[in-house]
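User: Round two. Same drill as before: sequence, then structure, for each protein.

Assistant: Same drill it is. First protein:
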Amino acid sequence: MATTRIDNATVWTGHRLPSGEIATTDAVLMKDDRIVALGRTAREADADEVVDASGEFVLAAFGDGHVHPMFGGLEQQFAPVRDMSSPQEIVASVGAWARAHPEAEWVRGEGFDHTLAPEGIFLAEWLDAEVPDRPVVLRATDYHTVWVNSEALRRVGYGVGVDQPHDGEIVIGEGGVPTGTLREWGAWRPVYNLLPPVPAQTQLDALSYASRSFATAGITWIQDAWVEPDMVGAWLAARAAGALDQQVDLALWADPNSWRDQLTGFEESRARIIAEGHGQVTGHTVKFFADGVIESGTSAMLEPFCDCPHSKGLPNWDPEEMKLAVAAIDALGFTAHMHAIGDFGVRMSLDAAEHTAKVNPPRDRRWVIVHTQLVDPADLDRFAELGVIANFEPYWSKFDSWQSELTEPRLGPERTHRQFQTATLADRGAVISFGSDWPVTTYAPLEGVQVAVTRQMTPEGPSWMPEERVSVDAALAAYTSGVAFQAGRSDAGYVRPGAVADLVWLAQDPRAVDPMTIGAIPVRGTWYRGRRTFGG
C-alpha cells in the first residue's frame, strides 16, 4: 500500500477545542485513500513519499456546496463574452467569433455582465449589427437572463403580441416588440430547446477543464447544482475516462411544470449513477429553483420592489406545488437543494421543508437552501428548527456593482442591508456551508474566504454589514466540514485518522496574513483520496 507523509506543517484539523481554538498538529500520514496518523505517530512512521511543507498550512480539502461545472467548462467552447466592459465590446466579440466559425448554426456565449445595460435590458438590434443572419443566444453571469438577436426571436416565434409565460418574462419594448432580453426559464427555455445538442466530446472537454480548475484551488468534492438528463451521461463518461479529480454529487433539475412526470426519470438516473458512478459520481439530490434573482426583478419577494411597486418578483413554483414536489422526492430518498434569493423564495423553501417533515417519516435529511440572500427576520430561526443548511456563496457578500446598479434600487436601503446574514444564521444555530456558483463568480475558495472575513471590496473601502463578518476559522469550516455535512459525509471535512485522504496545502496560514490578501495565497498541493492531483 502506498503511503505519503506531510511533515513540518501547520495542520489545521478542523476540530474545535474547549477553548474555542481549532486543534493543530505538525504532520499527517496517508495510506492509500485514508488518513492513518497525525503528529508524532505520523512522523515516526515509514512512508513511500515524504513532503516537507516548510512550516506551511495544511487542512482538509475544500468542498464546493453549489457549483455548475458543465456550464463553466462550456464557456470556454463558445464566443467569449465574460469580462467585457460594454455591450458594444460584447457585440464585437460575438461578431468576431461568428466570422471565425461560419459552420456554427447558432452563435452562443455564456457569462456576460448583465449590469452593463440600463435596467439590465439588452437589445436584439445591437447583436443584429454584427450577426444578422444566424441566431445568437447569450446567457448572463446570473444564468437567469438571456440576450438574443432578432433571428433567434424569429425562430422561437416571439413577436408583437406574444403571450407572456407564467414563469418568465419576455421583456417588451416600444410598439410591443420584444427587446431581445429574456428572463427566467419560461422565457428563454423555448430558445434553448432549439439549440443543437452539445457534442459528447465537447461536454467531456468541459468537465475535464472544470475538474482541472478545481484541483488547482484545492477542491475535492462538488455539488453540481443543475443537472439535466443529457448531462448525466457526460458525467459518467468523464469518470470512465479518468477525467475527474473530485467526487461529485449531481442535483437533478425539477421542472415546476412537469415534476410529476420526472419522478420515474429521477429514479432511473439515480440507478444508472449507482451502477456506473462507482461512488465517485453520486445522484442523491434534486434541485429546485424557488425563484429567480433580484438583479432582474425575478426573485420572489414578500413586499414589492422599490423601483416597481406593483411587482413582488416571480416565483418559479406555486408554493403548494413546491411543498408537494419536495415531499415527493424526499419520499424517494432524494435531498432537496433549493435555490432561494428573495425573502418569499426563502419562506417557500422553508415551508416546503416543514411540510415534508410533517407528512413523511423522520430521517436524517440534509436539505439545503442555497444563496439565502434575503431572509425575513421571522424566518431566521427556522433554519435551525427545521435542520435546513444555509448555503452561501461568500464571494457575493460585498457591495459591488451588482448591488449598487441593480440590487439596491430594487430593494431599498433597509432590505439591502439585510442580505447574506451569514453570522446571524450561524449564531442562531444553523449549519453553514459555502459554495461558489461558478461560473457566476470565481470557484476559488480562498477568494470566498477573504470576502466572508472582510466583506470589503478594497483594503481602504468600508466593510459592508460588518456584523455579518465571520472568523477565518469559521469560513474554512464552512468550506470543509460544512460542505461535508451537507454531503452527508462523516469521513470528510476534518483531518483525523480514518478520514478520507483529501487534503490541501497552502503557502500561508490564512489566519496569520492581512485578511485582504487571503484570496492571493497560493495553493501548493491538492490530494484527492491520497493521490496528488495538483502541485508537485
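Second protein:
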Amino acid sequence: MCKFAVIRNQKTYNLIIIVFVLVFSLFCVYKLQNIKFDYDFEAFFPNEDHELEVYNNYRKTFEYDNEFALVAVENNKGIFKKDFLLKVDSLTRQLSRLRYVQRVTSPTNLKTLSLGGIVPVQTSVLHFQNEELYKEDSIAIYQSAHLVGSFFPLNAKSISIYIKTDDLLTKLKSDSLATGIERTLKDFNFDEIHFVGRIFAQNVYLKNLQKEFVVFICLSFVVIVLFLWFSFRSFYGIVVPVIIVLISILWTLGIMKLCGKSIDIMTVMLPTMIFIAGMSDVVHFFSKYFEELAKGTDRGKIYPLILKEVGFPTFLTLLTTVVGFLSLLFSSIKPIKEFGIYTSIGVTIAFILTYTLLPSLLYFFTPKKLVTVHGTNNRTHNLMRTGLFWIFRHQKTILVISGVILVLSVIGITKIKVNNILLEDLSDKVKIKQDFMFFDKNYSGVRPFEILITVKDKNKSVWDYDVITELNKVDDFIRKEYDAGFLLSPSSLVRSIYQNSNSDYNLKFPGSEDYEPISKQLKNNKKNRDVKRLITTDGLKTRISAKIRDMGSLQATQHNLNLIAFIEKNVNTNLLQFEITGAAHLIDRNNEYMVNNMTQGFLFSLLVIGILTFFLHRSWRMVLVFIIPNVIPLVIIGGIMGYAGIELKAATSLVFSIAFGIATDDTIHFISRLKIELGYGKSLMYAFKRTYFETGKPIILTTFILLGGFVTLMTSDFQSTFYFGFLICITVIIAVLADIFLLPVLLFLIYSKKKK
C-alpha cells in the first residue's frame, strides 16, 4: 500500500511538472508573437566614459554628426554634361521635399560666398544651365581643395549629394526615409547609384539579423539532430532532447520579451548558445540513464545515481558556463552585458529542465531500443583502452609537445593587433558595403571626424585673428594627415570667402587687414542657423567637422596621435583646447575598452573557477591541473589570431571569457568521475580506465554537438559572428584534445605521488 502511494505521488509530481512546462510554454508563445528586432548603433557606445558625455554635449551644441546620408550618381561620359546635371538638379529638389530631410546640398545648389560690395554675394559653384561656363567652372572646382573629395571625385565620373536628416529618427521614420530616397533615385536613369548612411545601414543590419536568427536555429536543429541520431539511433532519442532545448530557448526569449528586451546583433546568437549548452546536459543525463538500464539497474535507483555521478558534475559545468557569460558584465557596453545575462538565464533554464522535465518524460515512457544502443560490448571501449595506455607510455612526449606549442602560441599573441572597421561586419557582397567602399575609393569617405574646440581665454573669441590663424594650422594638417573631405570649420569658411572674393583659389589665408571685413560680416551673422552649427553665439566654442575614409581604428588612432602631437608642438594650447569626438571615435574607444573589459572578465572567470576548484578538492595542485588544460586552448587561440592576422575587437575579445567557461565542462566531468571511481576503492589505473569508459563517449559526443552548434555561426554575413563561431570551434577542438591527452598525464602525476 505504501509502495503504491509512493508511485502515485511520483506520477502526480511528474504530471504537475509536464503541465506547468506546457502552460508556461504556451504563455511564452503568446508573448513572442510581436517580438522585435533592433539595431541601435549608439547602444555600443561606452556608457562609462567621459568622452560620451563630451560627445552628447557636443551634438546638443552643434548637430548630430551621424544623422546624414550621402548619394553618389555616376555618368560614364563625364559629369560636365547638361542633361546629366539637369537630372541631378531635379533629383536634389525632389530629395529636399522628402519628409525628415532638413537640407540637401549638391553641386547644382552649392554656393560660394564672397565680399566685394555693400552686401555679400553668393555665386553658384556650378552654372549647370549654361554649358559655356562648364570649362571655367570645372577649373575653379578642381582648384578648390574643399570641393574635391567632397562633392566631386578626381576622375570626374560622378558627383555626390549630401542629405542632412532629422536627428534621432526612430526605426520607423528611418525606414520611411530610406525607402523614400531609394524610390526617388529609381525615377532617374543614372548609370550607377550609390547611397550610404545610418538609415540604410541600420535597415540592412536588421534584415540580416532577422534572417540569421531563423538560419541559426534551423541549422543548429539539423546538425544536433544528426548527432543525436548517430548516438541514440532512435526517434525518441532525438525528440526528447530537442524538446528540452527548444523549450529552454522559448522560455528565455519569453523572459526577454517580459523584460522589454529586443533581439539585437548579440542576442541573435542566444538560441545557438542555449541549444549547445542545453544539449550537453541532456546528453550526459541520457548516456548515464541508458547505460544503467543496460546494466540492469532498477529504475528507482537510477535517478539518485545520476544525481550523484552526473548531476553534481553537470551542476559544476553550469556554474563555470554561467561564470563565463556573466564575466561579460565587466563590459561597459549594454548589448554585451544583456547578452551575458540572458544567455546565463537560458543555460540555467536548460539545466533545470534537464533534471525536472526529462525525468518526468522518461517516467512515462522509455523505449527499449535506446537501452540496446548503450550496451558495453562494442569497439569503443577497446579503442579508448588502447588510447589510454598509449598516453601513459608517452607522458614526457605529451608534456614536451604541449610546452613547444605554448611557446609558439605566446609568440603569436605578440602579433595580435587591436583594430575595428565600422562596416567590416558586413559581407563585401552586400550593396551598402560596396557603396561605402565606393565613397572610400572615389571620395574622402563617409566616416565622421569631429573636433570640439574651446577658447580658454574668456577675453578672446573664435573671431579673433590670432585664434582663427591657429585653427587654420590645424585645418591644413587635418587635410593632409587624414585626406579629409566635407571639411567644415571657421578657418575653412574664412579661406573660402577670401579666395572667392579675390577669384584666386591659390591664395592660402588672409592677412589681418584682409580678414577684418570677413570677420565683421561673420560676426553680424553669428545668429544665422548655418553659422550656429559651426560656432556658438558667444564665440567660445567651435568645431572642425569632416568625413574621412574608414581606415580602421588602428590607423585612425595613429592619425589622432599625430594630430595631438602637431597641436602640442605648433598650436598655442594656452589659447585653445582641442578634443577629438564623434560617433566613429567613440566606437574606436569602445573597442579599446572592450579588450580591457574582457581581460578583466577573463581574470574574474579564472579566479572564481580556481576558488571553486580549491573548495572542492582542497588542493592548489588540483587547481593548476584544472586550469592548465583549459587555459592552453585560449593561449593557442591567441597565437592563431596573431599568425592569421585576425584582429582583436569587440566580438573576438568575447571569445576568451565564454570559451573558457565552455571548455571547462569536459574537465569537470573527467575529474569528478575519477574521484568517484577512486572513492569506490578502485586502483589508480583501473579508476582511469573506468573514467575513460564512463565519460569518454559523452565528452566526444558533446564536443561534436558544440562544434555543430558553433559551426552554424560561421554561415553569418556578419564578420564578427563568423569569427566568434570559428574561434570557439577551434577552442573546443583544442580543449577536448587537452582533456584527452594532457589532463590524464597531469592527474596521473598528482595521484601517483599521493599513492607513494
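The first strand starts at residue 68 and ends at 74.

User: Perfect.
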